[in-house]
Specification:
The complex is a heterodimer of chains A (372) and B (237). Chain A is α+β, with helices and mostly antiparallel strands. Helix content of chain A is 41%, strand content 8%. Chain A has a 4-stranded antiparallel β-sheet with strand order 4-3-5-6, covered by helices on one side. A two-stranded antiparallel ribbon of chain A has the order 1-2. In chain A, a hairpin with a 5-residue loop joins strand 5 and strand 6. In chain A, helix 6 packs across helix 9. Chain A is flat. Chain A starts with a helix and ends with a strand. With 237 residues, chain B is mostly helical. Chain B has one domain. Chain B is built from 8 helices and no strands. The longest helix of chain B has 61 residues. The N and C termini of chain B lie far apart (106 Å). Classes of the chains: A alpha+beta (372), B mainly alpha (237). Chains A and B meet through helix 1 of A and helix 1 and helix 3 of B.
Chain lengths: 372, 237
């Protein structure tokens, strides 16, 4: 036995010594520390009431929020345009751009400058009047001559023309002076193009049928007059100021302040909605307020959907209405009474940061009180 | 982050076996020491028994070859009785001694003589088997109890290390790891002690059983021989 003990002790000592040597320093794990990613949990309920423009391109920054108070002028604007107010409609081309009322400018110089394509030719003509080699310049000088005549002609025609044209008469007179002003500044081409052929027609038509040309300018210029009537009628000073600045009201489009086009994102919210748990809480509260009408033989199949709106602080806005009736009037009335009673107690809703609530539709069903 | 790494490195530097043992709490140390001693004793028993069984088997072989060599029983008895013998030799000596005593004093009945010889051999076999199987029970105990003792040490160690975590108010792995490692060391030692103990117990008890069978077989054989001798001699008187 002694031999066994000695051998065992020696063996154990040897093993332990070997263990101390070999297991003394295990290699430390090479742990690479990576930076922690901030993770934010966003519940899907937060996006339920949000709508965006699906077609809009994705930009880095979302479009600024639509203005809530349009009265104060330094407000945010969303649509690109020249308007003061931010209108969502697309900007319409300004037909009256070059017709700002002003006086005192030579007509012939204005026209050729205003019209790039036809204007170059008259300019050439003006520069080199003696050699009228080209066929075009020759007809054009008559245009110029015709144009001054055209406005002049309507004036004599005023007498035969109807009273409705009276407004139109003022404008042609004004149009002629207007043009010189825009001429020095940059003027869009397409607006002037249609005008060029008109006077030619007028010029040609003059001798033959004086009435037709008179009608044409009057009809064509009527819309312009209707637009220009406003600035004219308002105040002379404004008209003058607008003429000096050469600015005109745009018919549509966003505000000038807006520098960004609409982007993918929230354009408007339809009001906050409740999460499932909050819906359950609301329906439970309504169920507590609900006193079923007595004397009903059976409540089976009776189901009323009541619609009501709530103010942001959780009070009834307007009166609740029955969305789909159960067919039993007493039953419907009891559902409406339940909503009013809960309103007097105060609806227990989560804080909504003052945001409006979406319309509530509550199912009044004796078997299953659910919130639609 | 650097602080964490530093503390980790400091801890990982002191995770050697000796440090693990030394950092453990008192109870865990006690458990580990006890398990270590049990392991030493287990291996001592294993070595001792293995050597002893080998010797015993050799003696049986030698005796059997001598016994069946045609040598007279008287001569064999005289050579064996003078020295201490074990195993079959002791069995043979005990039976022959009873035989001689009975014949020298004049046995009356052969059945009584036969019974006495059987009893003497049974007692000798029991003594020999008791000697063979001594301390095998310790192996069985270590094999079954050591894992639990180690587990106890582990549980206590983890308990104390969790208390330390609660005290330090940090769940950093660098704080948790050393305590758990030292606690697990107790289970490891328990298993190291228990596994050889179980294996050795099964092997040694099977060997002891085989040796006991051989002794009993020899006892039966020798009893038959003696019985024949008794029948031959007694009626002759």
């Amino acid at each position: 036995m002694k031999a066994g003990v000695v051998t065992s002790t020696v063996l154990h000592t040897a093993v332990l010594t070997w263990g101390l040597w070999s297991l003394s320093s295990p290699e430390p794990l090479d742990v690479s520390y990576s930076e922690a990613l901030p993770v934010e949990i966003v519940m899907s309920e937060n996006f339920q009431g949000v709508q965006g423009e699906k077609e809009a391109p994705i930009t880095e920054k979302p479009a600024p929020k639509p203005t809530t108070r349009p009265q104060t002028l330094p407000m945010e604007a969303q649509n690109v345009g020249d308007n003061e107010t931010d209108l969502p409609t697309p900007p319409t081309p300004d037909k009256t751009r070059n017709q700002t009322p002003q006086t005192g400018a030579p007509k012939p110089s204005a026209r050729p400058e205003a019209e790039p394509q036809p204007a170059e030719k008259p300019q050439e003509v003006a520069e080199v009047p003696p050699p009228p080699k080209q066929p075009e310049p020759t007809p054009e000088p008559p245009k110029e001559t015709a144009k001054p005549e055209a406005p002049k002609e309507p004036t004599p025609e005023i007498d035969p023309l109807a009273e409705a044209i009276a407004a139109a008469e003022k404008e042609p007179v004004k149009e002629a002076p207007k043009e010189p002003d825009p001429a020095p500044k940059n003027v869009p081409v397409p607006q002037l193009k249609p005008k060029a052929p008109k006077p030619t027609q007028v010029a040609e038509a003059k001798p033959e049928t004086p009435k037709k040309p008179a009608d044409k300018p009057s009809t064509k210029k009527k819309p312009e007059t209707s637009q220009e009537d406003a600035p004219d009628s308002q105040t002379d000073f404004e008209a003058m100021a607008a003429a000096v600045i050469n600015k005109q009201k745009a018919a549509g489009g966003g505000a000038k302040r807006s520098t960004e086009t609409a982007s993918l994102g929230s354009k408007k919210t339809t009001g906050a909605t409740l999460s499932r748990g909050e819906k359950d809480a609301l329906s439970e509260q309504l169920n507590g307020c609900w006193q079923r009408p007595a004397g009903l033989e059976s409540e089976e199949g009776l189901r009323t959907v009541v619609t009501f709106n709530l103010t942001p602080d959780g009070h009834l806005e307007g009166s609740p209405s029955v969305d789909s009736s159960s067919g039993n009037r007493a039953f419907d009335e009891s559902a409406l009474r339940a909503v009013r009673k809960c309103n007097s107690e105060g609806f227990q809703l989560p804080s909504n940061n003052g945001e409006g609530w979406d319309t509530f539709k509550v199912n009044f069903d004796p078997e299953d009180m659910g919130n639609a | 982050m650097e602080v964490v790494q530093d503390s980790l490195a400091a801890h990982s530097a002191s995770v050697s076996l000796w440090d693990l043992f030394w950092q453990a709490s008192f109870i865990v140390k006690l458990v580990m020491m006890g398990l270590l001693i049990a392991s030493v004793w287990t291996w001592a028993i294993i070595i001792d028994k293995t050597m002893r069984y080998g010797r015993f088997r050799r003696q049986l072989n030698n005796f059997e070859s001598n016994f069946w060599s045609g040598q007279s029983l008287e001569e064999l008895y005289h050579t064996l009785a003078e020295r201490r013998t074990s195993g079959m030799g002791a069995l043979f000596v005990a039976a022959m001694r009873e035989w001689k005593k009975s014949f020298e004093k004049g046995a009356r009945s052969p059945i009584g003589l036969h019974t006495r010889i059987e009893k003497a051999m049974d007692v000798t076999i029991a003594r020999e088997m008791d000697d063979l199987e001594s301390r095998l029970g310790f192996l069985a105990t270590v094999g079954s109890a050591a894992p639990f003792v180690g587990l106890f040490g582990t549980v206590v160690g983890i308990m104390t290390s969790f208390q330390a975590i609660a005290g330090s108010k940090s769940t950093n792995l660098a704080v948790v790891a050393p305590g758990i490692a030292e606690a697990l060391l107790a289970t490891a030692i328990g298993l190291v002690a228990a596994i050889p103990a179980v294996i050795a117990y099964n092997k040694l008890s099977a060997d002891a059983g085989k040796l006991g069978m051989r002794l009993e077989a020899f006892a039966d054989e020798f009893s038959a021989i003696l019985s024949r001798q008794i029948d031959e001699k007694l009626p002759a008187r």
